[in-house]
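Subject — a protein and its fold

Tokens — whole-number codes for backbone shape
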Amino acid sequence: MLKKENVKRIYLAVAVLALLSGLGWLRSRPPAVSVAHPKVQSVTQSVSASGSVAGLDESDVAAELGGRLAHLRVHEGNRVARGQLLAELETSLLKAQLAQARAAVDTARAQLTQTARRPLASEVERAQAEVDQAQEVAEAQLEAARHRLQELQRGPTREELEQARGQALQALAQREQSKREAARLAGLYDQGYVTLQDLERARTQARVSENSYLTSYNRLRQQQVGTRPEVLQQARAQVDQSQASLQGARASGQARMQNLRDQPRIEDVRLAEARLREAELALEVARERLEQAYIRAPYDGTVTKIFLKAGQSTGANAPILHLVRGSAYEIQVNVDELNLGRLKVGQPAVVSSDAYPETFQARVRELSPQVVSERGTILVRLDPLKAPPWLRPGLTVSVNILFEMAKERPIVPLTSVTVAGRRSTLLVLRDGQLEEREVQLGAPGQDGFPVLSGVGRDDWVVVDRTNRLPGQKARAR
């Protein structure tokens, strides 16, 4: 029979062996990990981005002319109607040019009227009288030239010689008398009996008498000698010249009367019409230039920006203000190019602003054909379906473009996903071993990431993959 001490030792040894065996089993057992099946929820997928409101049709409004901006009729934020006056340039010079062009048209029209009408009877009579008078004058000049030539050819008569001799003797006597009178007054002047004025008057008379005598004597000598050949030649030339003048007056008169009877001449009328058309075209150009100085709204819209102030100078086609058409707005957002495959024209969107509590619906109208490589984004344009009254150009808004509506998707916890660049992975427990799966995820929500592909609802997904590696043995906990 065994002693009690030996029995106790045996039990203790058995217990120690059992304990050691249990520890070995625990040490060889795979570690436990927290796993769970993905939740399945109805998920609406969207692409979120920040954007801004812009006019569907907007443009810089400019003047076609350069000049000084005289008046600015609007302010930023003003709503304007099509054709409303927005600004105007200095117009004093343009108005003066317009008045000058109008006067030119009036003159050209009057000239055309004058050219196109037939001459009045009074005008014909007056012209005929002027022509007859010119011919009569020419005939009188010719007759006088012929009479003088005949006199020169005939020479002086006896009576003319006696008359010339008598005039010469009378002039000689008058000269001698004037000399004696001047000498007598000179003596009296020396004695102080006459004034210097009386003496000068006598001397002047003596000089006049001397000249009269010389003229009379030369005329007498000329008549005694006869007409010189050169004088006769000059007289004949004068007759020929008067004859030519008469012929010219007759020809000119006939041409003038014929021209008057031929009025109006078609070539003159056409020339006057051409001048009128040219003046009217210049008037139209002047009107257009004046109108171009008045800058008007091309459409109903809102003034969003003003570039110039009154008094500043502007060049031709230089912007004066920026105008956005009416209430036709669009939403512009720059979306990451990674979402390009999810976006399509016609997709709905929800738009909101931090400044206003309500949201409104929009629809994708256009995807830009080009990606902005520097930022890796693409421009998306959306049309508001019903723009709220507070919408205005330049307002910053948040846009959620819905590319998948209410579809059941597996949802995995945020802590189960590892993202490295563009690659998203999670760990799945399969046959006691951790397996890494690459997945495609949607936009995260409060409950986690919706999984678009890579795992299903029956997979065991590691809830927290911290310090967990692919290929590691594990067991569910």
Notes: Residues 121-154 form the longest helix (34 residues). The chain has a mean pLDDT of 84.
